Amino acid sequence: MIDFQSWNSLSPEIVLLCATCVIALVDLWVTSAGRTLTYVLSLLTLIVVSALEGSLALADQVSFGFSHMVVFDPLGHWLKCFSALAVFVTFVYGRPYAQDRDMLRGGEMFTLGLFALLGMMVMISGNHFLVIYLGLELLTLSSYAMVALRRDHAQASEAAMKYFVLGALASGFLLYGLSMLYGATGSLDISTVFASVSSGQIKHQVLVLGVVFVVCALAFKMSLVPFHMWVPDVYQGAPSSVTLMIAGAPKLAAFAIAIRLLVSGLLPLAQDWQQMLIILSVCSLTVGNLAAIAQTNLKRMFAFSTISQMGFVIIGLFCGVVNGSTVDAANAYSSALFYILSYVLTVLAAFGVILILAREGFESEEISDLAGLNQKSPLYAAIMTICMFSFAGIPPLVGFYAKLSVLQALLASQQTGSTPLVIFALLMSLVAAFYYLRVIKVMYFDEPLTVTRVSASWEVRCLLSLNGLMVLAMGVFPGGLMALCASAIVRSLGS
After folding, report:
1. Within its chain, how far is the Cα of 450 from the centroid?
2. If you count Cβ atoms within 10 Å of the first and of the last residue's Cβ in the chain, which end, N or C, has fewer?
């Protein structure tokens, strides 16, 4: 019998897949330098997909489809909606940059970006080990190709090779870990794995070995120390438009599979994976912030900043369960979800400014390239200032409330060592403030190196201005987004 409910819930993915194939074919006849038709069709597709996902999320229904291999819940629908919007913003910001660098000789940037989004959506909905792995591979293979899209650029090719080799290693970690869990439980279904692990009849050592490899793979995808080696080189070497593609939406998918695997599937082993996450968090906060201080390249600085920001997300993930009790789980996981959403929102605006400042023959990648930006463009300097203050956790911006909610969740959990960890995280935030404020100092107090006026198309200016205002507005009025995160977590995990 045809499962119409499952097909209806899967309609955004079906629309995205069909539209991407059509766009790839249509692009063969597009001759304009900016691939205008391909670009417009891609944006329309993303608007339709995000609207469909938003409507499904508002329905507030939880269901399983296709022999329990896929889960449809508010958490998944909202993450897919925000992922589609993040890719939409990435395309708008990145198109002028890509056109100036002859990266639009074909429509690969748009079609690969759409296929990467499809991979993210499959990952987010996965309730089965194979579904999650297939989605992950679709995302990563598309990402490898996008990093190497600037064919005549040696640095981009080198970054793509490093990303491919280390990404293959991480995929191997995940596949091996999942195979160990399958061997121990006899199932690839996450719900069945949860029931088998909860029974207590499976040898603990085998499960822990599988968990170790799964956590290592998740740490790679979330840019956590010591699996961060690829991040600075790929961020710097990839074209800036592709760097934004990697830095934004995929973080939402990585968060989703962390929730699916660790919380939905392996919650009875929380005491084991929590210890690993604590170490990953402390190392990421330390290495990310201290290494960022020494960077002069803006994209490398953002790479190490990402590492430290993901350390905060992990704090929200490991403080949800205390000695087997899940009383504080909703508070902790919703705080982590709010943090990852606020991070993606802020990084989109920050890279939007970098992409606007870049012009043909000039990448605007060094911190010194921002010198005197306030004199040339007060608007873009103000938006970058908002982003830097938000990353540093300074009120009333969204980054402040994100950090506050995660640390509050950690204190509320009353885990052993929670207070020292909060103090350590605050100290690392003070360290981070140095390199974020340094960027602001350069923009407002250094003399400009050039007198070239900064120009951008009207849609980029409007979207970037809206993006910057949202970073501010979500900090002043965080209640709506926080309530949405809490509702999605409670509804999804409560089922």
Report:
1. 34
2. N
pLDDT digits (tens, 9 = 90+) for 82-138: 999 999 999 999 888 888 887 887 778 899 999 999 999 999 998 899 999 999 999
- Domain edges within the chain: 4-493
| Vertex 415: Cα angle to 413 and 420 (nearest 5) | 110
> How many Å apart are CA 353 and CA 381, to the nearest integer?
8
Query: Is the pTM above the cut of 0.90?
Result: yes
Separation between Cα atoms, residue 86 and residue 105, nearest integer Å: 24
**Which candidate, 208, 205, 184, 206, places its Cα nearest to that of 196?**
184
For the beta carbon of residue 344, count every other beta carbon within 10 angstroms: 21
- Give me the residue label for tokens 């340094």: 438
* Cα gap 8→254, rounded to integer Å: 25
Q: What are phi and psi of 126, to 5 degrees?
A: -65, 130
Note whether 66 and 3 are within 8 A (CB): yes
CB 374 within 8 A of CB 448: no
Maximum CA extent, the chain:
71
Name the one residue in this structure whose structure tokens are 């695997």: 261
DSSP assignment of 409-466: HHHHHT-TTHHHHHHHHHHHHHHHHHHHHHHHHHHHHSPPS--PPP---HHHHHHHHH
Report CA-CA distances (Å) from 315 to 101, 105, 424, 455: 40, 44, 12, 40
Query: How does residue 327 score in pLDDT terms, banded at 50, 70 and 90?
Result: low
Tokens 């029931």 belong to residue: 195
Q: State whether residue 362 is helix, strand or coil.
A: strand
How far apart, in Å, do the first and last CA atoms of the chain sit? 25
Whether 172 and 145 have beta carbons less than 8 Å apart is answered as no
Q: Tell me the pLDDT tens digit for each residue of 213-246.
A: 999 999 998 889 888 888 999 998 888 889 999 9
Distance CA 259, CA 334 (A): 11
Angle at which helix 270-293 crosses helix 204-221, to 10 degrees, equals: 30
Distance, CA of 231 to CA of 380 (rounded, Å): 26
- Do residues 307 and 288 make contact, with C-beta atoms less than 8 angstroms apart? yes
- 398-413 vs 378-392: helix axis angle to the nearest 10? 0
pLDDT tens profile 436-461: 999 999 999 888 777 667 777 888 88
Q: Give the length of the chain.
A: 495
